[in-house]
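Hypothesis: this fold can be encoded by more than one sequence.
Test: take the structure tokens below, design a sequence, compare later.
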């Protein structure tokens, strides 16, 4: 085994921004490599996921979320894939094992043994595929909403890390027509041509209600909502009687330029909710612990060529903060992953 370095690099928060973060709010520091304790694993990180929810962690919102507050001087966090360098005696982990954990944004991580999970390399042999957010989308479409064969499904932010998986999963589960929203015509064309969406509406190109009426002339049966705001209002107008809404995120507030991103207010007319018997449910996949079902199905769909994992790789920890700003801007389609 090659000798371990005495130092490694981490991305830290320099100061908490008042509004959207900028590059000057982050720094890459070289810091001594810590030695693991008796119940800790030393992991050399290979990939980590850059996710938009960091914006509200930086802002300090943790109420009703499983995530920690990030203060000035803290190292950022996020899902990571790494290789075990050392593990405590008696642990089921061994040097060389690939594991997932939550301490990304650093080249090496000292992780409590119970917070490391060995990757299922039989179901998903490519390590980077373990950073997809398909379980959230799959759980929402199988546990959070009653998706029925032939349903017309509208996915807001259809090019996001979750949305890019949700559209494909809805098709695999029998949806008849799947529509995305996105931020540009270029992205709309890619969602249709590369990810199998039947149509995509473009935020700001024309009133969303008009675009949805053309994309789904018979209305929508299921709304998979990552955004809230005007897109939620448009979905209510487009809903068929008995439509089912599953609310996954609120990017309209989370990534807004005003405020801290910790609220996402929206004004809805409640009469259509009543007259159309719309069922609306807030959802978190954290309420379910049977993600192995998803991993096995996703692996089978991948091997059959029926699904892809849309993602962008950013090489080098020195580019990670810039990658986060690009995620907040909605520049990419699919997950954004930093490769170390």
């Amino acid at each position: 085994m090659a000798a371990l370095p005495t130092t490694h690099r981490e991305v830290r928060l320099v100061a908490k921004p008042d509004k959207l973060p900028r590059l000057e709010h982050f720094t890459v520091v070289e810091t001594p490599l810590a030695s693991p304790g008796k119940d800790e694993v030393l992991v050399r990180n290979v990939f980590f996921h850059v996710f938009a929810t960091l914006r509200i962690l930086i802002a300090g919102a943790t109420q009703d979320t499983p995530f920690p507050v990030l203060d000035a001087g803290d190292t950022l966090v996020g899902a990571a894939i790494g290789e075990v360098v050392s593990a405590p005696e008696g642990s089921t982990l061994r040097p060389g094992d690939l594991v997932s954990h939550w301490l990304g944004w650093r080249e090496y991580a000292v992780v409590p043994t119970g917070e490391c999970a060995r990757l299922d390399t039989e179901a998903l042999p490519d390590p980077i595929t373990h950073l997809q957010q398909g379980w959230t989308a799959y759980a929402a479409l199988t546990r959070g909403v009653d998706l029925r064969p032939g349903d017309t499904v509208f996915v807001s932010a259809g090019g996001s890390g979750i949305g890019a998986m949700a559209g494909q999963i809805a098709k695999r589960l029998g949806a008849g027509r799947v529509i995305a929203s996105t931020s540009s015509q270029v992205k709309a064309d890619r969602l249709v041509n590369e990810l199998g969406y039947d149509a995509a509406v473009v935020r700001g190109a024309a009133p969303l209600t008009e675009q949805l009426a053309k994309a789904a002339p018979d209305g929508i049966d299921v709304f998979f909502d990552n955004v809230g705001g005007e897109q939620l209002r448009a979905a209510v107008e487009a809903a068929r009687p008995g439509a089912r809404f599953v609310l996954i995120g609120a990017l309209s507030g989370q990534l807004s330029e005003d405020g801290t991103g910790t609220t996402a207010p929206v004004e809805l007319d409640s009469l259509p909710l009543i007259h159309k018997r719309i069922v609306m449910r807030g959802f978190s996949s954290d309420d379910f612990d049977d993600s192995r079902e998803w991993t096995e199905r996703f692996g089978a769909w991948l091997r059959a060529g029926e699904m892809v994992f849309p993602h962008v790789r950013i090489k080098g920890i020195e580019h990670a903060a810039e990658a986060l700003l690009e995620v907040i801007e909605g520049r990419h389609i699919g997950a954004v992953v930093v490769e170390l």
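Residues 62 and 69 are 6 Å apart (CA to CA). The mean pLDDT is 93.
Hypothesis status: open.
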